[in-house]
Design goal:
By secondary structure, the chain is α/β, with parallel strands linked by helices. It has helices spanning 20-26, 28-33, 50-62, and strands spanning 2-3, 16-17, 44-48, 76-80. Strands 1-2 form a two-stranded parallel ribbon. A two-stranded parallel sheet has the order 3-4.
């Protein structure tokens, strides 16, 4: 998990801070997992702000990931709020 506004968390936050793309580009996920996530070895679930979801969909599809759709399985699953 990564959040962009830790000071808004009622219980405090000690995890990764920033935007999903920043975490992806910095290599922190690769470092923590010991391998770079790819569409061949990982399914992604995005949930939250539609700007985050749209941004992640953009960079993931550019790397070859595919949105999961009814009747057409993919490796990206998501829920967008506020839409």
């Amino acid at each position: 998990p990564i959040i962009s506004e830790p000071d808004k968390e009622p219980m405090g936050w000690r995890g990764q801070v920033g935007f999903v793309k920043d975490g992806w580009d910095s290599g922190i996920i690769t470092k923590r997992w010991g391998q770079h996530p790819t569409a061949e070895n990982t399914h992604v679930f995005l949930c939250g702000n539609p700007l985050m979801v749209d941004s992640a969909l953009e960079f993931l599809t550019a790397e070859g990931w595919v949105e999961d759709r009814k009747g057409d399985p993919g490796t990206i699953h998501y829920e967008s709020y506020w839409k």
